[in-house]
Hints:
Structural class of chain B: mainly beta
Radius of gyration of chain B: 14 Å
Order of helices and strands of chain A: EEEEEEEEEEE
Low-confidence stretches of chain A: none
Number of helices of chain A: 0
Largest interface: A-B, 22 and 20 residues
Helix content of chain B: under 10%
Oligomer: heterodimer
Largest sheet of chain B: 6 strands, mixed
Strand content of chain A: over 45%
Shape of chain A: globular
Mean pLDDT of chain B: 93
Amino acid sequence: SQTIHQWPATLVQPVGSPLSLECTVEGTSNPNLYWYRQAAGRGLQLLFYSVGIGQISSEVPQNLSASRPQDRQFILSSKKLLLSDSGFYLCASRQEGQETQYFGPGTRLLVL
Amino acid sequence: GNSVTQMEGPVTLSEEAFLTINCTYTATGYPSLFWYVQYPGEGLQLLLKATKADDKGSNKGFEATYRKETTSFHLEKGSVQVSDSAVYFCALHGSGNTGKLIFGQGTTLQVKP
Lengths: 112, 113
């Protein structure tokens, strides 16, 4: 079965600083990968998804970007963080041909 | 477009009470339906799923039946425990082959001893 790793687990960053969150996947190859954000007390918002290396689709316009430099690595970045970027960021993986997504433990980001 | 609507929380129950969390959906065709659970401070875990009409998904005492006629996938458990306290998300598999899931807004369940 798949295992999704995310780090860091918690991050406190000042406004205007850069961001890099990493997600890696074990136990599968050529997965579809997803970044979600969960704001406090709210549901999940899909930010980006990727069907392969270098292929990124953005779901909502925002201050963030994503990259997939390797098959099982998905990175979420920002050049300058905003207060509104605070939230709980979840990475998910889906094996080709299946519908179930498996989630990582998440990164809690607080922008001050 | 596709959407999922869950009952608003929080839902507060005493231990051993019966649980129902309502979920209805709007979709073209017959999408697969899911319930995910998020324990405090953690990511989401798949709880159960159903892939076609009248299927019943079940896990850890939780059940949900795919009802095409009412476009619903309500989550039930006969006797909740304090350890069931969590946020529950209903979701459907969107159309196309991108695998995108469309989530409801989540329902917080708090079980008191």
